[in-house]
Write a structure and sequence with these properties.
alpha/beta; 4-stranded antiparallel beta sheet; Rossmann fold; 2 domains
Length: 225
């Protein structure tokens, strides 16, 4: 799952992010309410974990803005505000669950996974398609022009991200964060190598290319004109 964590306490944020990544999830971090709000409203997530007390914009306002904007991302409030009235306020604001600090990570992951299942049920998305390229998210098979394309797990994850953002320019930073879970540039050619391999598999023998390089900006997956 792709998970947003909005938490201003660096130690807590790092602990939660590492634990979620070890469970196989992709994590975006925001350390203040303003950045958290921009991400929560402007991007797609399976689950958002939001602190109540945040600098610039508080957690309750973030959730209210998400719901006003039509974002139905399941939200788990993670907060030291433990009184019943605080939990009620959070849930009434539009949150789906509320966990108080201190907490056991095993309980956090159980709640997140439950919210993730709810998110999956809401979307009921089982496949992605662009022109004659189709990705089955259940069987994890990829076909172009009805021909099976054999992808490695990282290549599958890379293609899934590109297909979810088809028609958009995807930057190296976006790929590092969402496909490799790097929140810094390790100064390697890992992206170029994987893009080259992916292009060989989905474009080389199929006529019109779908995976294009946008010079100086990144890459885009686009249907032929």
């Amino acid at each position: 799952m792709r998970i947003l964590v909005v938490e201003d306490d660096r130690e807590t944020a790092g602990f939660v992010a590492r634990g979620l990544q070890e469970e196989g999830h992709s994590v975006d971090l925001a350390d203040n309410g303003r950045d958290g709000l921009v991400r929560a409203v402007g991007q797609e997530y399976d689950v958002a974990i939001v602190d109540r007390m945040l600098p610039e914009v508080d957690g309750k306002s973030i959730v209210e803005a998400m719901r006003t904007a039509g974002r139905q991302t399941p939200v788990l409030f993670l907060s030291a505000m433990a009184e019943v009235r605080h939990r009620v306020e959070g849930l009434k604001a539009g949150a789906d669950d509320y966990l108080t600090k201190p907490f056991a990570f095993s309980e956090l992951i159980a709640r997140v996974e439950a919210l993730g299942r709810r998110s999956t049920d809401l979307r009921a998305e089982t496949s992605l398609r662009l022109a004659d390229l189709e990705m089955d998210l259940v069987s994890r098979e990829v076909r172009r022009n009805d021909t099976l394309v054999d992808l490695q797990p990282r290549e599958f994850k890379l293609l899934e991200f590109l297909m979810r953002h088809s028609g958009q320019v995807v930057t190296r930073t976006m790929l590092l964060e969402h496909v490799w879970d790097y929140h810094f540039d390790p100064q390697t050619n890992v992206i170029d190598v994987h893009i080259s391999r992916l292009r060989q598999k989905i474009d080389k023998d199929f006529g019109a290319p779908l995976l294009l390089t946008v010079r100086g900006a990144g890459y885009t997956l686009r249907a032929p004109d």
